[in-house]
Write a structure and sequence with these properties.
The chain has twelve helices and 13 strands. It is of the alpha/beta class. It is globular and about 60 Å long.
Length: 375
């Protein structure tokens, strides 16, 4: 059986896709990049914001067209969007043959076996992960699942559930497997890396302990921690950045906004002063560290003045990179109960303005690096 894959969404979803593909390959599937040559097309969906939902629906419809026009025998949809809206999707897109949410995924491969789409397990199994991407030397290691933060705009806890840390020994084994597959850089991902170990018994390893174990148990050249809330930046973690050359001096620290009223309304744990303090601490302790962040514009009741405060905060803190998105209400979130009172045109205008401001900031930061050797 030839398997075609459309994997959408974040790096954490990429890890999910690689693990699921490995299970397919372990039952004789051959992965093909040509969807028109696939017997089965797997679509891993995203449901974070409206644009991601639309992209996922379009991907499912695209896969369904291959089934109606070519050799494809079945379309399988999994992932965040399916977990939240399986019944609705089943009604609206009957061309998709299988919808499996996260809780049901263990039953997917046996079901496809029963339906004659997959063979019995093969003798040589591909391992825990099957590389799916364009850079085999750069891989992702998901250290936990779910999220305990209750951000008003975010539906991820409704799709992924509560935070669950993975055992250190299991993560070390997976990192060794990624190294054996050729990984030279491993990016650590989770909804918030800083929560690692908080759900485990007292004395259990935390993020800094995990990183030390990965450095000790593997020869991977670089580890890069992504997605750490400012509250999770601890002295032990900063010391590692300052002293360990294999830990890339880079952090993705989402702030979402620079106005305290909106941060409270978003139910974010940070405030302007705490964010500022952590950024200054990082740059003092780890000279040259690159800091990426994320910001949200057009949240309900955001005023022009509060948006300008965000722009001023971005210019003040001089983040090296920034990802930005416009607010869209998500079913079941607290923010969906608020009036979506910022017009879409204003959201898009603010988004473009923020991107332009960050583009200038990034250019200045990069200009400072000319002639320097950082790694």
């Amino acid at each position: 059986m030839k398997l075609g894959v459309i994997s959408l969404g974040c790096d954490k979803a990429t890890v999910d896709s690689e693990k699921l593909i490995a299970r397919f390959v372990g039952h004789g599937a051959e992965v093909t990049a040509a969807l028109d040559d696939a017997d089965v097309i797997l679509v891993n969906t995203c449901g974070f914001i409206d644009a991601a939902k639309k992209e996922s629906i379009d991907a499912m419809l695209e896969a369904a067209r291959y089934k109606s026009e070519g050799r494809c025998r079945a379309v399988v949809a999994v992932g965040c969007l399916v977990t939240r809206y399986r019944d609705e999707l089943r009604r609206e897109i009957p061309e998709v043959d299988y919808f499996y949410g996260f809780a049901d995924l263990p039953a997917l491969v046996p079901r496809l076996q029963r339906d004659g789409l997959l063979d019995e397990p093969v003798v040589t199994h591909p391992g825990m992960r099957f590389f799916f991407g364009t850079k085999p030397h750069v891989r992702y290691l998901k250290i936990s699942e779910g999220c305990d933060h209750a951000c008003a705009f975010c539906a991820i806890p409704l799709m992924r559930g509560k935070h669950r840390s993975r055992p250190l020994e299991e993560l070390a084994h997976e990192a060794q497997e990624l190294e054996a597959q050729g990984a030279r850089e491993v990016n650590l991902v989770a909804q918030d890396l800083g929560h690692y170990g908080r759900d485990l018994p007292d004395g259990a390893p935390r993020l800094a302990d995990l990183i030390r174990a990965l450095l000790r148990e593997t020869g991977v050249a670089w580890y890069r921690p992504l997605y750490v809330y400012s509250a999770g930046i601890t002295p032990a973690l900063v010391e590692l950045w300052a002293t360990e050359p294999r830990l890339v001096p880079y952090i993705d620290m989402p702030i979402q906004h620079g106005n305290d009223r909106l941060l409270r309304l978003m139910r974010r744990p940070e405030r302007q002063d705490t964010i500022r303090t952590k950024v200054h601490w990082l740059r003092e302790a780890v000279p040259g560290i690159a800091i990426r962040t994320t910001a949200l514009v057009g949240f309900p009741t955001e005023t022009d003045e509060e948006f300008r405060e965000l722009l001023e905060f971005i210019e003040e803190l001089q983040f090296d990179r920034l990802g930005a998105f416009a607010y869209s209400p998500q079913d079941g979130t607290r923010a969906a109960e608020l009036p979506d009172d910022v017009p879409e045109a204003v959201k898009q205008e603010r988004l473009q303005h923020l991107i332009e401001v960050q583009r200038a900031v990034s250019a200045g930061r990069l200009a400072e690096q000319v002639g320097r050797e950082t790694l």
